[in-house]
Design goal:
six-stranded mixed sheet, 3 domains, Immunoglobulin-like, 31 strands, alpha/beta
Length: 712
Amino acid sequence: MSNKPLNLTPDERAELVLQAMTNEEKFAWLSGPMAIPLGDEPLPEGAIGSAAYYPAIPRLGIPAMQQSDASLGVSALGNIRPGDNATALASGLLLAATFNPQMAEETGKLVGREAFAKGFNVQLAGGANLIREPRGGRNFEYLSEDPLLTGIMAGHSVRGIQSEHVVSTVKHFAVNAQETGRVVVSSDLSEAAMRESDLLAFEIALEIGQAGAVMPGYNLVNGTWASENDFLLNKVLKGDWGYQGWVMSDWGATHSAAKAALAGLDVQSGANLDKQAWFDKPLREAVASGEVPQARIDDMVRRILRSLFAVGAIDYPARPGGDIDYMAHRLQAQREAEQGIVLLKNARALPLPKGAKRLLVVGAHADAGVLAGGGSSSVTPVGSLRLPGVDFMGIATDKIYHPSSPLHAIRAESGSAEVDYASGEDVRKVTELAQKADAVIFIAEEWRSEALDAEGLALNDEQNQLISKLAAVNKNTVVVLETGGPVTMPWLDEVAAVLAAWYPGSGGAEAIAGVLFGRVNPSGRLPVSFPASEQQLPNPEQLDPATTTSMPGVPVKGDIVHINYDIEGSDVGYRWYSRTQQTPLFRFGFGLSYTTFDWRDLKVTPNAAAIEASLTVTNSGERAGADVVQLYIQPKNKAYVPRLVAFARTELAPGESRVVTLTLEPKVIACWDTTQSAWQIAQGDYDIVAGRHAEDVSLQANLTLAAQQFSY
């Protein structure tokens, strides 16, 4: 039961506690090690065992801060809480593929409930980096290449987490696009381009979710570490956006005391991975010398307290041992996966007929589970298959398969069909089985992990070759992709159907089987473009991981590496392909269905409050399904390439029609004027396009706008 005083705001309550704190209590919250046993370092007293722990202040009624990863569920990195169970949500890419903010909020609530029940009051969630580098090892944690879609989905996920009295971060602020060399890479990008892309995604996410904390990345931005970047933290985040929460470093990403504190960093996280505990003795000395004012220390602590009060983490303290309905949560994870699986190709092969007599499932470990991404976000439900993975910050991190078996789910969904299984290692055997099958379902996998970018965009040679061989002997070969991002498909013309299942989480296999057999009508849409080859990318060449450093807490190899993101600027993903007139393999927003939808009567109505658009969507097919309306804008003078300005997912029964109304986001229409430090909407005529993907023109309307300027 809450003991919240009446009529006091989180700011007022934070100020009261701050005035009662001693200086030692304040500094105890500004720097802390990882809350796990590392070498001879014991687990801090009172810590559950997680990413971080900051001690309670019992005399003031303030609970300890127990912090855990991440957006996809409550992590037990390196199995630091043996036997701990947790629901594994699907990858962030799959969540974004739902184009469903409500789903983001509901799955966020799930994470918040489990975190709270396990005793955590801070969740290191809210991955909101734009996918500039489709080979990025951590892309599966993020959401999309588009700032509007990313910001909306991240914001609703954070809102869901914080509704359960758990603070959520958003991360990694900002332009943290690759893992290889991540601790020495400088993301170089002009202010205008950054404001219109990566920063816009975070701005929208913070407006919607009101995240209690922001985490900069390991990278540098324009030559300055993100964790001590005055432009990012003071000018933009705390200044322009008026952010009231706290800024915590990533683990081992703090590089100074006074400089970082004065630039806007509030907490040094994972201090045992840094050269020293910068926010302990060195920061104390900087305060004593007058280099850092005491008021700055108070501001750091006040921000933490304010966020904890704002979500109810102090009024409703989290304690381990709470009840969790894992079966209900698993079903929720399955529903998420069902909405986010994308049907990329279907040559009348799907849904598979219930009358099929013999099916063949091929793929390593498809009998055991579905693949998950690696690193700090890795969630390990009880029963997960663990295989050797990577050494992550001194912790052996396994390659995880969540306990949801595609083979078993397909058998359950297929009715009376005989379903054979082959791992694919014995090529002769599997091709013989394929010749006898009514259809072949190939579960292809591509594993990615934090600190490891994919080398190229291809599946490994063995899988690519085997897919072609199977397609040659069975015309009904269906490929299911369990991947951490886009992949190339040299066999695309040879196979009958392709599903992008991403990393589908605790209920992933049941969702895959549901789509394959038609119990689920696929409705996912691509949140990232699939390039036809690496040569289409703004930066086709990759940094050699042997020449650089990708992990904190280890000796740095080589110099700072500058990545020029001004090549594409704000034209990330589909905008880049439009600008350069390239045709990717699959476009942003693309996805097929088992039914058909008709659109008509697009109307755009500008008014003083907002610009609204409406159209009528009709399910003209024979199955219930969901459609995703996407609105894009482009000035008629082609001043910039098309941008997504609104989207809406709608569920329709066969024959049902519905008027869908959308509100256009003004900051997506505008461009940033650096000389004026303001958003500018140019006067003129604009095309508003309702499309089924980034280059589709299903309906079009004209919009005339007066010149507008708005600033912070």
